[in-house]
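Handoff note, outgoing to incoming analyst
You'll be picking up this chain. Sequence as last confirmed:
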Amino acid sequence: MNIEQAMLDPTNAFASPEDVFNEQSLTRDQKVKILRRWEYDARELEVADEENMSGGPPDILD
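Most recent structure output, in case you need it:
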């Protein structure tokens, strides 16, 4: 796994946030950074959805 790439695009490296949490090769700090990026990206998609710019809100954070 390329950790730097996972931090830039978590959805490309992991199927779900739970997979990040369960990944043994990552440090706590790396997991936090990846999950924060995932959240940021999901929130950006929500904003785009509110502005009718995407296909739908991300259900993964629910």
